[in-house]
Recover the amino acids of this structure.
């Protein structure tokens, strides 16, 4: 009789492949599953990635404040006032560091729209002072859960608010009723 050959004894390439396919090791099963799962991912990823990038750009644009077709002279004082009052009452870091006074409302493009004179100088000075106050007392709001704003910071912010109010009223703009109630003890 001829000799009986077991598949496990067949060391040829064909025999090893046959044995491997009949009883594959776990790493082969994992590798096949990974390849099968990555094919749809490779097909879909470029489209999803492009949509995600476009959506992220929309989100970034929506986070920025856009003051279109309005001169800075009409909105910058109320905006700075609102931010300074928000900083005075800050309880969490986002209220203290909600905006940057070097950028945002104090951009050079906005400053160039202001009428030359006392009002423009007061706004520019307020931007610099608010940025300085924000950076000086940033350690008061270093924790993520609360802010302990010192009285010195509140007083400095009130001085900036008072100077802005005087410059705003001297420039001939109307004072909102809300303006007169902002004085803080």
């Amino acid at each position: 009789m001829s000799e009986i050959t077991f598949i496990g004894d067949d060391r040829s390439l064909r025999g090893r492949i046959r044995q491997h396919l009949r009883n594959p090791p776990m790493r082969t099963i994992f590798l096949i599953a990974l390849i099968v799962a990555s094919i749809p991912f490779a097909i879909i990823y470029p489209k999803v990635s492009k949509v995600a990038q476009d959506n992220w750009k929309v989100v970034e644009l929506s986070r920025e404040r856009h003051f279109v077709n309005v001169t800075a002279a009409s909105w910058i004082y109320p905006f700075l006032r609102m931010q300074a009052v928000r900083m005075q009452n800050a309880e969490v870091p986002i209220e203290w560091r909600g905006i940057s006074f070097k950028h945002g409302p104090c951009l050079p493009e906005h400053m160039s729209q202001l009428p030359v004179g006392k009002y423009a100088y007061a706004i520019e000075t307020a931007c610099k002072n608010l940025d300085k106050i924000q950076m000086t007392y940033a350690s008061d709001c270093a924790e993520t859960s609360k802010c302990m704003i010192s009285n010195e910071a509140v007083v400095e912010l009130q001085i900036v608010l008072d100077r802005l109010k005087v410059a705003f009223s001297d420039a001939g703009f109307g004072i909102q009723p809300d303006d007169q109630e902002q004085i803080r003890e």
Residues 72-180 form one domain. Helices lie at 13-22, 26-63, 72-88, 93-96, 108-111, 118-136, 151-170, 177-180. The first helix runs from residue 13 to 22.
